[in-house]
Structures are given as C-alpha cells and as structure tokens.
UniProtKB/TrEMBL annotation:
It is a multi-pass membrane protein. It comes from Ornithinimicrobium faecis. Residues 597-788 form the Metallo-beta-lactamase domain. This is ComEC/Rec2 family competence protein. Its main location: membrane. InterPro entries: ComA-like_MBL, ComEC_N, Competence_DNA_uptake, Metallo-B-lactamas, RibonucZ/Hydroxyglut_hydro. The keyword Transferase does not apply.
Amino acid sequence: MTHPSRTDPSRTDPSRTAPTRVDLPHPHPSRTGEAVTSLGIPEPDAEIEGQQESPRLDLRLLIPALSAWAVLVAAVVHDVRTQLLGALACLLTGAFLLWLAGRSTRRGRRRERRWWLQISGLLALSLVATSLVLGASAAHRATEHAGTVPELAQERAVVTLTGVVLTEPRVITRGDERPDLVVLELRVTHVVGRGEGSSVGTPVVVFADKQWAGVPWRGTVTARARLGPPDPGDSVVAVATPLDPPTLHGEQGRVLAGVEHVRERLRQAVDPLPVDARALIPGLVIGDTSLTPPDLSDAMLATGMSHLSAVSGSNVAIVLGVAVLFCGWVGVPRRWRPLVALVCLVGFVLLCRPEPSVLRAGAMGVVGLIGLSASRRSVSLPALGTAVLVLLCWDPWLARSYGFALSTLATLGLVVFARPWGDAIASRLPRRLSLLGDAIAIPLAAQVVCAPVIVLLQGTVSTVAVLTNLLAAPFVAPTTIAGIGAALAGTVWLPLGVLVAWVAALPAWLIGAVARWGATVPMGTIGWVEGVAGAWLLTLLTVAVLALGPWLRWHARRRPGLAWAPLLLGLALVWPTPGRHGWPPQDWVVAGCDVGQGDAFMVPTGPGRVVLIDTGPDPALLATCLDLLGVEQVDGLVLTHFHADHVGGIDALLGRVPVAAAYVTPVRDPPADADQVLADLAAANIPTYAVTSGDSLVWGDSGQVRGEVVWPPPERAGSGSLGANDASVVLDLTVSTATGDLPQAGGRGAEPGDGIRMLFTGDIEPGAARGVRRALAGAQFDVLKVAHHGSAAQDESLVTGIGATVALIGVGADNTFGHPSRTALSMLAETGTVVLRTDRDGAYALVLTEAGLGVTTQK
C-alpha cells in the first residue's frame, strides 16, 4: 500500500475536492511539518485524520445573497419607483455580463479567460439576486401603501379600522402617573375615513391602553382610532391611537387556539419557579420574554448571552437534533426522518408564533445544523445564501433588523469556522477532552463574526462572551427540551407540567447565574469606538487577525516575548487605574450616574462629599456610582418627586452612607410611594424638609455650592393642582470656582466669576416649565438637566433660551418610552448644546479644565 504522504498527485481523482491544507509561506517551517489553514487555526495532522479532505466552501450563492442584502439596507426605505428602477437596472446589467461571458466562451478563449468568466458570472448572479430582492421589496411597498391609509395618516384623521393582529400585545409599564401602554402591530384590511371606505393590506403600529392587552394574536379587531404618520424609516405605514376598546370578530381557529392553550399552560407551570428560571424557560421555549427582569436582561446583554433569553437558531437546531436522534432510537426509516424533523420544526415555530424573528431563527437553525454536519457541510453556504434571499423576499425590512444580522452572521461563523476550529482545538487536547473542541469553537466562531454588529448596538466589546456562552451551553438543551416537555405535559395535566418545569428550572437558573456572574467580572466589557466607524474598525481588525493568523502564530512560536508584549501593552492601556486617570476625575463639578431609566446626579461639596439629586430606580446601580465617585457623605439629598425612577434607589444610602439632610417636594404623589420614602427617611433619622420656590440652600464648608429652589410655588403646591411630575423640585444650583486655580465659567450670557450654574428640572411638563421660565426671567446657565429624561413634552423656550452649553439626560438603554425623543434632541441640536446621556455614555462627569468645561465618560 502506498503511504499517504507519498501519493502521486497525478493519480488523484480530479473530481475530488482539494484539501484545505496550505504550507507556511516561510523558508523555515515548523519541525513537525504541521500545516495551518489560511484562517490561522492549525489543522490536525494529516496522518491522524486519515488524509480526509475537507470540502471546499461554496461561495457562489452566498456572495450574491450578501450583496443583495447590502443594497436592500439602503433601498428598502425608498419609494416603489426607485426600487423598481434599481431592480430593472440590476437585471439588465446582469444579463449583459452573462452575454459577454457567453461570447467569450464561443470564441474558444475560455481557458485563457477563466478568471473573467468566474468574476462576470459572480457579478451577474449578484445583480440578479439584487434585482430579485428589490423587486420583492417594491411589491411589498406597493401593496402596503395602496389605499387611503397613508393619506389619512398624514391628515391625522379619525377612522374606523378593521385588521388582523400581527404581534402579541406588549404591555409597557411607565414609571409615572400615566397609565400602562400596550403596543402591537396590526395589518389593516379595511378602513373607513372621511366618508370613504377602502379595502387595504397596510401595516400600522398601535399604541393603546390596557383594554387592548387581551386581543389574541392573529385575531381580527375593529376600533375607531386616530392615525398619524410614522417616524422616517419605519416599516409601518401609520401610527394608530385607538379611541375605543377593540371589537373582536369571530373565533380563533383550532390550531391557534390549541397553541395558545399550550403557551398559557407553560406560563402557569413555571409560575412557582425562581425568578431567573421563570423568565428563561418561556423565553427559550415560546419566545416570551415578558417575565425577564431588567437586571437579568442587562446581564445577558453584557455577557453576549442575549440570544439565550429568547428563541434563536440554536433552539431550533436543538429541537431538530433531538427529533433526528429520537427517530434513530425508535427505528424510524431514514427516508422518513426529514419529514419527522419538518413536522417538529413546524410545531415548534407554531408554538413560538411564526413572527419574523421566529421564522428567521428557524431558517438559520436549519442551516446551522447542516453546517455542523461533516457530511453536508459543502451545501451549508448555498443553503445560507438561499435562506437569506428567501427571508429578504418574504420580509424586506429584515434587511435593517439587527436580529437578522446577528442570526445570519452567527450561522455564517458556525458554517465556516466552527468545524475546522473545533477539529484543530480537539487535536491539541487529550482524547478524553476532545469533545471540548466543538464546545469552545462554536461560541468562539459566533462571537468573532458577530462582534462588529454587537459593537454597533452597544459600543462595547465583551471579553467574557466566549467563556460565558461556553459555560452556559450545556444547560441550553436541557432547558429547551424539558421546557417543551413542561408545556406539553401541562396541557394534559397542570401539576405534571409543574413537575417537569422543575426539571428545567435547574439548568435555566444556571444559565442566569452564569450571566449574572459574567456581568460582574472586572474588564468584562471594554469600551470601543461607537457607531458605524467602530463596527468597521473591529471588522478590519478581525479580518486582519484571521488573514495573518499563520504568520502571527509562526512568529509567536519563534519569539514568545514579542508575542506577549502587544498583549500586555493592550491590557495596560485599557486596565483601569486609580488617580488622575481613573474615577473620580479631578476637578469635577457634576456627574450623571448610570442608574438605568431614572435620574441620579451628584455635585461635589468637598472631598468625598456630594449633593445628590434623585437616586434612580435601583439601589445597586446607585451604590456602584457612589463607589465610583468615592462618596463618603451626602451633604444634601434632593428628591425632586416621588416616582420610583427618582427615589427607588434610596436604600443605597440608608444605613450605608451618612446623609446630613433631605429636601423633598411638598406634593405627596404618588401617595403610597411618598409615604414609604418619608417613613424610610424618618426611620434613618435623616432631617427632611419640604421646599418650595424662594428657598435657599447652601452646602460645603465654605458655601461653595448654593441652590435656589425655583419650583414649585407654595400656593400651587398646597392647592392640589399639581401632579407628581409638575410638582418636581426645580433647582438653580451654582458651584463656585472663585477659590480655585481654574478659570471661572458662566453661561453663554452669564457674567464671568459667577461659577458653574446648573438647572435641574426633575420631570416637569410644559405647563410647569413655562412657570419655571417666567420665574427665571431670562437667567443664563451653563448646564441643563433635561426634564423627564428627554421626553417630547418640553417647553422649547426654556430648553433653547437659557443658553446652556451642556445638557444632561438620565435615561436607560433600550427603554420602552422612546427617551430621549427626537423632539428634545432637535431642540438641543439647534442651539449647539452638547448632550450627555447615560444610555450611550454610561456614567459621565463635567470637569473644569484650562479651556473651561470638559467631559469625561465611563464608556
């Protein structure tokens, strides 16, 4: 027998795909003769692998699909005419390229121009794919904009709508006196307005009250509503605000009613479980994330595990994999197994609701399962390209969906990198641990490919995502399978469903525990350049590392010291250090704490001492900010009003940090929250004073911080005419700089030497804001704390007329209120005001520099 290493290449079957091994382009290869792939991951030794050849990855359909996707991102917002012209241009250009290629072939110069044939064929296919998705998008847009709804929306008309509910109603709890909000999407089938009826197929988003919370998914409803235009770039055609409760028509079909029964039984079955398990099991099984607490959502996001808190392609792959294994155990013939898997897939999609995110997950789960199969890996990329094109034709707005991008890229990473990286890692592990190769490679491949999109979303890079996903991976399948079992068992008998749910509780709780632990790891997330620039920078860096992998690895082996030096230098650059380069920053005059959807601002009155204005909703987040700024004593605690997003974090102070005195609004609204806060302050022996306009406050050993209460006026506060927001304490606060070495600062119209003047406005609405504006009588400020987290309800004359150079906004990332609003941001942009917001900047501080006010942020 001929030794494999001496096989004559000329005897090799030309139909076989060439191996992916390449030799190192260096005159001094390694002593073992080890080969590496062009991606920088070493391949197992050829003799160990039995000279098995890896199939080539077929990019001929994937590249056209990705090209079409990139074009659709920009084109989907344009009108039908523009999209049709683009589709026609792409189709004609593709046909012309194919004609040129065919002409070159007929002239007998195919061998000489093979490169031209390949490139022209790929370009032609890309143009045809682009034409396909543009044509589909134009057809969708023409259908959706047909009828009278767009015109009625521009006129803000009151109409009678009949439509089908497309998404499950989502209840948004607002942290003020306003009632809860219900959001859902409706496909309008009939509209009556301005005396004219029209049959349409138009998608609208509905913002309603809690009377709409019970409308069934895919149910048909009728109601009077006021239409309005959507924001530019939205996928819906109009915004509807119902004026009446919904009227339901007909009954749900048996299939949908049965699915809803199973979903409800699962919710009931997990009700007795611990919080994290109760949240994650419905998320993984039926895509219901309504039970997920905000702190767990934040932890999952910070650790790159957010895909595990809801239905994703991995769940679909698990269900299909278990179905195939079950078929093997019970002896189902192979020809029937794809049909069984298809039935299971359809059932799982119905259980999760066939909404766009679930269908996307289903398609990517199937492709990912193909990619991880050694026997079918060669068809995985064409399958991925097909899935992308089909999904984009089915719903063109997926082109702009971050979820679609993350699913597609994660699947691409699994298909291209997971198998070779897993084999390479396994070849360097003991045989008993070889299974860890795939376990490490799968999250690593997904994280590497998805990182640029995650940076676009978060502005940070997670350093623990691979580790946390690796630790959580063993618990995902047991949670999913046991969760499905709980849903089915609960349908038969609820106590049995509860029992099976407890089986799923332990792995689900462990997933949550991994996320919460990962979120506390120092340097778990690293700040990065935000926006598109940051995404492209990380993309280029990733491609460079993958492309230069063999060269870097060879030099790292030859000179280990040089390999460690850049890594240590990078750690030194990003590692937080105390003193001038850390926090608290020197010469800071005001800081905004990242406490989620709420306000917490601090003004220093001395070393380790501050005035704290509001506490935010979460004691843990406020405690983190207190530690960050080195606060040892609170000289004054100002609680602008008693809503939870301004007083909920007070437990971080009581019994932990000395508080000299508290200053509150005299309006006790909401009554229960106000009574609780005042009782807590009294129990902690903190002197508490109700303040109104005209009161003066002084803090600091030399009185360097002075405050004047501007609002509420005593007569309004005692009349009961002010709600909680409009009763907010508005504080005109000045930090003196006359005793320091730094230059004086003042508002755009303030006199030099007055110090830094700031206006804290709580959550006042426009009515109260007009009273504040009159009370200020044209005073100028350096800093404005924007009212109500930057909501649209602003008094423009106050926002733009006080001359503030910096605006502070306390707002939570991914909040459901739309804060800060475009309206508020536009007002500030018109005056050139620098905007600092905790959802993007994290904790931030204004500092005095030689040039005046400067900014330092934690992100």
